[in-house]
Amino acid sequence: MNNIIITPAIGMPPNDINLFLSSLRRFYKGEVLFFVGKNDHLLKKNIKLYDSSYLEVNSHKHEIIIKRYRILIDFLKQRNDISNIFFCDSRDIYFQSNPFDFPYEGDINFFSEDHPIENCNINSNWIQKTFGHENFEKLKKNSIICSGTVIGKKEAFIEYATQMKMMSKKFPYKKRLKFFLTFRRDKEGRGCDQSYAAYLIYNNILLNLKTYSNKSGPFATVYHLTNLRFNDDNVLLNENNVPYILVHQYDKKWNIFKDKVDFLKIKLNIKF
């Protein structure tokens, strides 16, 4: 049985995957699959250069945030050889080790940002516009859950993706339409799947899951992370001085990470 990393990349500039794949391929030689669009010709060529594959899907780059769960369900049901899945973003992630080389405790594993939902305007907005004010009041004291990094077993992933699909139908993202603006072009709603993940977790709808701390866990989602510490090799460490497996959202703290990323790009021979 095999592991697989799956990431949506529709409409992404070809070079935006370079750091993701170059850093990953130091530690992981297994299957990597990108969801791409029909016209992503240069992106497809670049994916192949890193011994990775792609699945062409019929979706706009803003729609894929929700549509990716439907695509994921269909794909996983056709693949009997897959045991574990890492479903993640790609543009703003780089790796410090193999994401599968960790003793995850859950059938499916999530990563908290250790920051209350109510203290983040973006996440608060997503929840209020999907679930309404009453549900927001129930959820707001809980920590933000990052839907851009989820790892687990195949059957648990199918259940998770099925629940996400159901959530998107039952609780569609509500936006006041202006000048005939549609969800297809609604950049504001692009992360509303994160509100669905929080709802599922904090209402105990998903079974056999584990949520890891941002400060002490294996993944760093750095947007709300404070007191960042690096070793002499520019490797980011958690509060226990253990290297994180990956760094996510480094572009949100570019003043700190620019030199680190530049150093890594030179080390990996990536063009700036």
Q: Rg to the nearest angstrom?
A: 18 Å
For the sheet with most strands, the description reads: 7 strands, mixed
How many helical stretches?
Answer: 7
Structural class by SSE content: alpha/beta
Give the CATH architecture.
Alpha-Beta Complex
- Total number of strands: 12
Kindly give the count of domains. Answer: 1
Q: Return the CATH topology.
A: Spore Coat Polysaccharide Biosynthesis Protein SpsA, Chain A
Give the CA-based shape.
globular
Distance between the termini: 37 Å
- Overall pLDDT score: 92
Helical amount = 25-40%
What is the CATH C level class, in words? Alpha Beta
CATH level-four homologous superfamily name: Spore Coat Polysaccharide Biosynthesis Protein SpsA, Chain A
Low-pLDDT residue intervals, each spanning 5 or more residues: 176-186
In the sheet with the most strands, the strands line up as 3-2-1-4-7-6-8
Instruction: Tell me the strand percentage band.
Output: 15-25%
Order of helices and strands: EHEHEHEEEHEHHEEEEEH
Can you give a write-up of this model?
The chain is of the alpha/beta class and 272 residues long. It has a single domain, classed as Spore Coat Polysaccharide Biosynthesis Protein SpsA, Chain A, CATH 3.90.550. 33% of the residues lie in helices and 22% in strands. The protein contains seven helices and twelve strands. It has helices at 18-24, 41-49, 64-78, 121-139, 154-170, 193-202, 254-267, and strands spanning 2-8, 31-36, 53-56, 82-88, 93-95, 108-116, 143-153, 209-212, 219-221, 229-230, 236-237, 246-248. The protein has a seven-stranded mixed beta sheet with strand order 3-2-1-4-7-6-8, sandwiched between helices. Strands 5-12-9 form a three-stranded mixed beta sheet. Strand 2, helix 2 and strand 3 (53-56) form a beta-alpha-beta unit. Helix 3 (64-78) runs antiparallel to helix 5 and helix 4 (121-139) packs parallel to helix 6 (193-202). The longest helix is centred in the middle third of the chain and has 19 residues, at 121-139. The termini are far apart. Residues 176-186 have low confidence and may be disordered.
